[in-house]
Amino acid sequence: MIKNEIAATGNLVQIISQSRQNALKKVNEELIQMYWKVGEYLSAESTKVSFGDSYIDTVAEEVQNAFPGIKGFNRRGLYRMKKFYETYADDEFVTTLLSQISWSNHLAIISKAKTTEERHFYIMLCIKENYSA
């Protein structure tokens, strides 16, 4: 009787654990898609303006006013999203894989990998080894 109860509890723990993992994966996918869209928007809009860096500052301020206390949408964060989009925009190999790794892993790869081949290698390694940062 006790063995059956332990087995049932073990299965329940496994179900909860798997569901939590799936939820985190879905949240990551949504965040990556949002960062991509923000980066795409900033990339397109920044080509239309003539006042350079202050454009991103203005956008960061508008976002902070609309969503007080939101994290990651300061000047640095917005530049990262823009760079993320611009780095991968024309790379068909990567665009299908983007949401499979964490934002932190993307930032590390973008900042350290110097070539497209290096980026591909590290993205595939993160996926294969299920790295999370």
Describe the structure.
The protein is an all-alpha fold and 133 residues long. 76% of the residues lie in helices and 0% in strands. The radius of gyration is 19 Å and the shape is flat. 13% of the residues are buried. The model has no long low-confidence stretch (mean pLDDT 89).
Brief overview:
With 133 residues, the protein is mostly helical. It has helices spanning 2-46, 53-66, 75-88, 92-95, 103-112, 116-129. Helices cover 76% and strands 0% of the residues.
Poorly predicted runs: none
DSSP helix fraction = over 70%
Class by alpha and beta content: mainly alpha
Total DSSP E strands: 0
Radius of gyration equals 19 Å
Instruction: Report the portion of residues in β strands.
Output: under 5%
What would the average pLDDT be, to the nearest integer? Answer: 89
Oligomer: single chain
Number of helices: 6
* H/E element sequence: HHHHHH
- Can you summarize the main beta sheet? none
Alpha carbon gap, first and last residue? 42 Å
What form results from the Cα inertia axes? flat
Task: Note the topology.
Elements: H1 2-46, H2 53-66, H3 75-88, H4 92-95, H5 103-112, H6 116-129
Helix pairs in contact: 1-3, 5-6
Jot down its keywords.
133 residues; mainly alpha; flat
